[in-house]
Automatic annotation (TrEMBL):
Biased composition (Low complexity): 166-208
Renumbered residue ranges of the record's region Disordered: 154-208
Keyword Disulfide bond annotated: no
Chain ranges of the RUN domain: 817-977, 1177-1328
Keyword ATP-binding: no
Listed CDD domains: PLAT_RAB6IP1 (cd01757), RUN2_DENND5B (cd17693)
Residue ranges annotated for the UDENN domain, each copy included: 53-627
Taxonomic lineage from the root: Eukaryota, Metazoa, Chordata, Craniata, Vertebrata
Name the record gives this protein: DENN/MADD domain containing 5B
Length: 1333
């Protein structure tokens, strides 16, 4: 078998895949880091200079000891493995992210450990564990090269000091010139981290005494050893590498050549099987590792205790929430390992979900441009010691969670929902930490000096004991020797045993025998419970890890206990599902949310929109046809187990916190595995090596014999077993190939079906040419366009679906909460688009920064031309907007509205407010098109590859946004409820001039869902005259007022004081417009206001209807939303009494249907979520409302016409009933009536008299409306109807065929009205004002 084949055959089950050495190549010598050159190229491109013209010279400003030099992979074993090909560039970059660094004997040279991971295109991961140490440079060429570089640096420094005596001024000028650079600060933060001992000297590098002198100084260079493994066994790898390093620097050579230990871990140590533990041997001590079982949480060996101590519980839960909502998360620390621990810790806690986007826990210097990525990411950036966070400018911060690990603080995005039951959740996590003696607040985790001294002495003791253990390892029975034979002989001899017992009684000791027995007992105890402190510490960490993870897993198991019920599975096979994936709904989001407790909704409505949740549901659906994904299998098992143990209550809507019940069970499983080792790997042994090679030299890593390490054994049992298993799996796969969809096709479909970011989980590290960077950015542009298309389509479909429901088709599938989530998601997308390829970073919001630049230019042009800003303005006309002056449409005007809102404090908030306002005004696409029309500004602000400079994609993007004009949003009005808004009201009289004039004092009160304006007095006879398109004159009264946001307008109270000669006023309608959003409402009247005319009313309550805007070039023309609320028609307002002679009376069936419809609408209103109900006043008093329907009922068969055609109103009938009831002559009749009817009589009289005696003059129809509303509120209507039907007055005022005289109809109407008793009807103050009951 070839070396390659032996390496690959057993690779999937080997503990480690590669052993790698990185460092300086003595043959090629010192090379400047190529990645630094790439960075210069990127900077030139950013600054608008020609990148190709960047000088390729050296940077002599910097001390050579601070500069980065190119590292190389010096050796890796084996050469390659088929299942995990070796990526030399990526491994080199991640082993030494900053390249080679040099030290002298004056500097600290403490070895460092860090880990990394490489994510492959299919999402699978490979882990690397790196031990970096310093080795003395022995090559005279490199020492002299360093000496030369130092002399050149010194000459450069002296020359600059001579040219510019004030070094501070030069530094300040240079800093100001680069202050606009968003990447400069990042670059400086990635400079070599200096040790405290060297800082004082390095600050004055120009001084000859502190530089590098080849005669005086010893030069050291960094070198890295790395193990690459398929699973994250961090503790085991760290222990193995530190033992190898200890062997390198030890005074004594190791017991065996290093090749033996490396060969052993590469080829002879297997992966522990699931649910088992394994012991293998390092150079000096045994190493333990364990792997969770099939039903347990997956392996996670990075210490969560460290992550919690670094950040504190509350901070970590907040970061965790940001990760769940797929925001951009940037970790920041001096220590690579801390970056890795926090990143891996957080992603581990996501179970059963998985991060689906860019994941780079350690971001190499060459990939800084990747922070520009307009996609969700989780990245780690190394900081420089003493770097101030304020100097670190990032390309985009609107949706960024910045985690400063070393300073124990985080910066969160402005708006995001809290994790459900956050307080109780933090409490439970704190309890777990406290049970292990850790503080929930976190803090500095560096060990104190006394402890580190103890551990070093402990290590020495361990070293000596483990050496002797290797010589005489009783537990493995390798070397028993003479002592064991003696013990067996003595223990098996009954005569000697009796002698021993006699000797004990007399006090004589058999020393040798007792020592042997004690030794054997100690060995037995050690195999069960006697462990070294290091092993106890590892066990404690493992138990803490799993308990913390169980608490997180339990939260998801509670929240998603019934998720399966909402998964939509409607495909016959995998192929058809994959083909139609994008068009299909896989999860019934609306039903799921309606089943959740109210406090959970803000978080869950955001979370179920994420890519990680979509992938989780995809995996669930695919599990019908394929083997279940491991995380899903464990999660489903948990849910099933929970169902068995505790039967859920029928009502799911409970937000009571349930604590995790798996804590002890999971900790016990780990403890059992680590206390009782299941497998012991083959011991390291001498290999067939050439004599004389790899000679031991203290402090230097030897050159290993490549031929020995190139391939593994061909005859070891587990390797053969693995190979045969692999062959069996391959055969099985080949047999199933014809049944399952072709893998390439499936992968293609899956890549298409999943959102962007899937292909960009980790940037490619091996080839970083400018062409590759351009290609990556092009992928981002395509991804952003696709995301925009999907988001706008989703918003349209959901919104139109809801409106279809309101028109009576189908069922609603969107809630206001969901709508808000979609709009917030659109705001986030626009911020990411405006952040892509940004040249100059100003403020946290890239969009608002661009808008401010645009505003400054436009205002400058305005001052130059001394005329109002006309660019991009249009006048927006309204249907039926006679009397309202056209509202100017202008991006600058809308910006000024936002800037005047004192409630919004940040740029991100202002940008979001403008997006919401533009969306509500149906101007989002138009405003952004206007902003981008200034191409000179766009070119100045954005790089060539930016999304906003890709013309075709930009056009498509604006077109997708234009499609949102097809529906109505109230996302600005409903969110900014406390702001002051200017309104304009116009009262339009009936066209005859004589009717339009009034000498009395009119007043107005506008009410909306959020409040009312209060009474607004109008100056007498402020008649304005306007002309319509046919030059016909129109008169009206106009008033402007400012008040707190009223929300959607519902009613207008209009009245006057009846003073003067012309006190009668015939009003056509009132128009009211919100001057910020442009929303206009029409309040039809068509009635007289005045004494002795119509019903004698001096004030009327008018119900509003929304007027849809239409500009000449409105992209949404012809697709407008139906009106949200309708007002009663003017014909009805003239009073139904006047219809009696017109031959269009409604039939009895129509009247009964209209009452049923009105009651149904009120019941539906109360079944909607509270925040989405809208106005109840419209359902009571509007067209088709309850008042309108009952008015028809009471007018049926009503004798209204009298001599001289004076109309009689229903209210006249009510007054006569009251008079009849109160008349003393009729007391005898009433005494015969049953008691409940007597109570009903009393209440009816009380209500009618209260309405008649109130100071308001609302007319007879107004009084009827008020009585119906009060009766509905106080649940009296069904009690009053029988009284009215049985009163003798009815015979004089109603014909025989009247509905009110039909007992069957009255009893059915009573039953219908009683259905309203289950709901709390509240009335607007505009209706009930001044009524005393």
């Amino acid at each position: 078998m070839s070396a390659n084949m032996s390496g690959s055959g057993s690779a999937p089950c080997r503990f480690a895949h590669y052993f790698v050495i990185c460092g300086i190549d003595n043959e090629t010598g010192l090379e400047p880091d190529a990645l630094a050159a790439l960075y210069q190229w990127l900077e030139a491109d950013r600054q608008g200079r020609d990148p190709e013209s960047v000088a390729a010279g050296e940077n002599f400003d910097q001390s050579p000891l601070k500069r980065t030099f190119k590292s190389k992979v010096l050796a890796h074993y084996p050469k390659n493995i088929e299942c995990n090909p070796f990526d030399q560039d990526a491994v080199n970059m991640l082993c030494m992210p900053k390249g080679l660094s040099f030290r002298t004997q004056r500097d600290s040279r403490t070895p460092q450990f860090h880990s990394f991971l490489i994510t492959r295109e299919d999402g699978s991961r490979t882990y690397g564990f790196v031990h970096t140490f310093y080795e003395e440079v022995t090559s005279p060429q490199i020492c002299s090269a360093m000496q030369t570089l130092h002399q050149m640096h010194q000459a450069e420094h002296n020359a600059s000091a001579h040219n510019c005596p004030s070094s501070s001024s030069s530094s300040s000028s240079s800093s100001s010139s680069s202050s606009s650079s968003s990447m400069d600060s990042l670059a400086s933060s990635l400079d070599e981290v200096e040790s405290p001992s060297s800082q004082g000297g390095r600050r004055s590098c120009g001084c000859s005494g502190e530089g590098y002198d080849s005669v005086r100084d010893t030069l050291y260079v960094s070198k890295a050893m790395c193990l690459i493994t398929p699973m994250p066994f961090m503790h085991s790898c760290k222990g193995f590498l530190s033992q190898v390093h200890r062997a390198v620097i030890s005074h004594q050579p190791p017991p065996l050549p290093l090749e033996s230990y490396i060969y052993n871990i590469l080829y002879e140590v297997p992966l522990p099987p699931p649910g088992r533990s394994l012991k293998f041997h390092g150079v000096y001590e045994p190493i333990l590792c364990q792997r969770p079982g099939v039903g347990e949480l997956p392996l996670a060996d990075f210490p969560l205790s460290e992550a919690f101590q670094l950040l504190g519980v509350e901070n970590l839960v907040q970061i965790f929430t940001c990760v769940l909502l797929e925001m951009q998360i940037l970790l920041y620390s001096q220590d690579y390992q801390r970056l890795m621990v926090v990143a891996e810790g957080i992603t581990t806690l996501l179970f059963p979900f998985q991060w689906q986007h860019v994941y780079v826990p350690i971001l190499p210097a060459s990939l800084l441009h990747f922070l520009d990525a307009p996609v969700p990411y989780l990245m780690g950036l190394q900081s420089k010691e003493g770097t101030d966070r304020s100097k670190l400018e990032l390309p985009q911060e609107a949706n960024l969670c910045f985690v400063d690990i070393d300073n124990h603080c985080i910066e969160l995005p402005e708006e995001f929902p809290q994790f459900p039951n956050k307080t109780e959740f933090i409490q439970e996590l704190s309890e777990v930490l406290l049970s292990f003696g850790l503080s929930p607040e976190g803090g500095n985790t560096s060990p104190d000096p006394a402890v580190s001294m103890q551990t070093s002495t402990l290590e020495k003791e361990l070293k000596s004991t483990s050496l002797s253990e290797l010589v005489d390892d009783r537990r493995n029975g390798n070397l028993g020797g003479e002592a064991l034979d003696v013990l067996e002989l003595l223990q098996g001899n009954p005569t000697l045993e009796r002698l021993q017992a006699l000797a004990k009684r007399t006090g004589v000791k058999v020393a040798r025998l007792e020592a042997l027995v004690a030794g054997q007992k100690a060995v037995g105890e050690e195999s069960v419970g006697g462990r070294s402190p290091a092993e106890e510490e590892e066990l404690r960490n493992a138990k803490l890890n799993v308990q913390l993870r169980e608490v997180f897993a339990a939260r998801f198991a509670t929240m998603f206990a019934d998720y399966e019920s909402f998964v939509i599975q409607n495909s016959p096979d995998l192929e058809s599902w994959l083909t139609n994936r994008e068009q299909m709904h896989n999860f019934d989001k609306a039903s799921f949310l309606s089943d959740q407790p109210e406090p959970y909704l803000p978080f869950l409505s955001h979370f179920i929109e994420t890519q990680m949740f979509a992938t989780f549901i995809d995996n669930k659906i695919m599990s019908q046809w394929e083997e279940k994904e491991p995380l899903l299998r464990v999660f489903d098992g948990r849910i099933e187990k929970a169902r068995l143990y505790n039967v859920r209550a029928p009502s799911l809507r409970s937000s009571v916190y349930q604590k995790c019940t798996f804590l002890k069970e999971s900790a016990q499983a780990i403890e059992q595995r680590l206390r009782k080792i299941d497998h012991t790997a083959i011991h390291p042994h001498l290999l067939d090596m050439k004599i004389g090679q790899g000679k031991y030299q203290q402090g230097f890593f030897p050159k290993l014999q490549a031929d020995v390490l190139a391939s593994g054994p061909t005859n070891n049992k587990w390797s053969n077993r693995t190979c045969s298993t692999q062959r069996r799996v391959d055969r099985h796969r080949q047999q199933n190939d014809h049944l399952v969809l072709d893998n390439e096709l499936k992968e293609k479909y899956m890549q298409e079906a999943r959102n962007l970011g899937k292909n960009l989980r980790q940037p490619k590290l091996s080839d970083l040419s400018p062409a590759v960077i351009a290609q990556t950015n092009w992928k981002f542009v395509e991804g952003l366009l696709k995301e925009c298309k999907m988001k706008t389509k989703r918003m349209l479909v959901e919104k139109m679906g809801r409106e279809a429901v309101e028109l009576g088709h189908g069922e609603a599938n969107i809630t206001g909460l969901e709508e808000n989530t979609l709009i917030a998601s659109l705001c986030d997308l626009l911020e990411r688009i405006w952040s892509h390829g940004l040249q100059v970073k100003q403020g946290k919001s890239a969009l608002w920064s661009h808008l401010l630049h645009y505003q400054a230019r436009e205002e400058k042009n305005e001052q130059l031309s001394e005329s109002p800003v006309s660019n991009g303005q249009e006048k927006r006309k309204l249907e039926s907007s006679v009397g309202l002056p056209a509202l100017r449409v202008s991006l600058i005007q809308d910006m000024r509205h936002i800037q005047n809102m004192g409630e919004i404090k940040t740029d991100v908030g202002r940008a979001r407010a403008l997006i919401r306002l533009s969306l509500e005004k149906k101007l989002l696409s138009q405003h952004l098109k206007q902003l981008l029309s200034n191409q000179a500004l766009t070119k100045k602000l954005y790089k060539r590859y930016a999304f906003l400079r890709c013309e075709e994609e930009k056009e498509q993007f604006l077109f997708h946004l234009l499609s949102l004009n097809a529906v109505d949003y109230f996302c600005f009005t409903s969110v900014f409820t406390t702001i002051m808004i200017p309104y304009r009201a116009v009262i339009i009289p009936i066209k005859k001039l004589s009717n339009a004039m009034t000498t009395s004092n009119p007043w107005l009160c506008v009410s909306g869902e959020l409040g009312d304006s209060g009474i607004l007095q109008i100056t007498k006879n402020v008649l304005e005259m306007t002309f319509d398109s046919a030059f016909r004159p129109h008169t009206h009264i106009s008033i402007t007022f400012k008040c707190q946001n009223l929300g959607k307008l519902t009613t207008v109270q209009l009245g006057h004081d009846n003073s003067g000669l012309l006190a009668k006023w015939l009003v056509d309608c009132v128009m009211v417009r919100n001057e910020i959003t442009g929303h206009t409402y029409k309040f039809p009247c068509g009635r007289w206001l005045g004494k002795g005319v119509d019903d004698g009313s001096l004030e009327r309550v008018l119900i509003g209807e929304f007027v849809v805007p239409c500009s000449d070039d409105d992209g949404g023309r012809g697709t407008k939303t139906p009106p949200l609320q309708r007002s009663p028609s003017q014909i009805r307002r003239i009073s139904i009494t006047s219809l009696t002679g017109r031959g269009n009376k409604p039939t009895t069936v129509q009247i009964q249907e209209s009452i049923g419809e009105a009651v149904n609408n009120i019941i539906k209103h109360f079944h909607k979520p509270e925040k989405e109900r809208g106005s109840l006043t419209v359902l009571l008093c509007g067209e088709g409302g309850l008042v309108w329907a009952l008015e028809q009922f009471f007018h049926h068969g009503f004798r209204s016409a009298r001599i001289f055609q004076k109309n009689v109103f229903v209210w006249d009938f009510y007054e006569k009933v009251v008079a009849f009831v109160e008349n003393a002559d009729q007391i005898g009749d009433l005494q015969e009536t049953p008691e409940p009817l007597d109570l009903n009589c009393e209440s009816f009289c009380r209500y009618v008299n209260a309405i008649n005696t109130m100071p308001r003059n609302i007319g007879k129809d107004g009084k009827f409306q008020l009585l119906v509303c009060l009766g509905a509120r106080d649940r009296m209507l069904p009690q009053w109807l029988p009284l009215l039907a049985e009163c003798s007055v009815i015979t004089r005022m109603y014909e025989e065929n009247a509905l009110l005289r039909d007992k069957l109809t009255v009893s059915s109407l009573v039953a219908v009205l009683e259905t309203l008793h289950d709901f709390p009807i509240t009335l607007e103050s505009s209706l009930t004002k001044s009524v005393e009951l």
